[in-house]
Amino acid sequence: GRIRGFGIGRIKNHPHFVKHDKYGEISEVVVETNSQRKGIGSKISKKLLEFFKKRGIKSSELFVDINNKTAINAWKKLGFEETTKGMIRDIWKSLYIQETHKYKWK
Question: Parallel, antiparallel, or unpaired: how do β-strands 5-13 and 60-62 relate?
Answer without folding.
Answer: unpaired
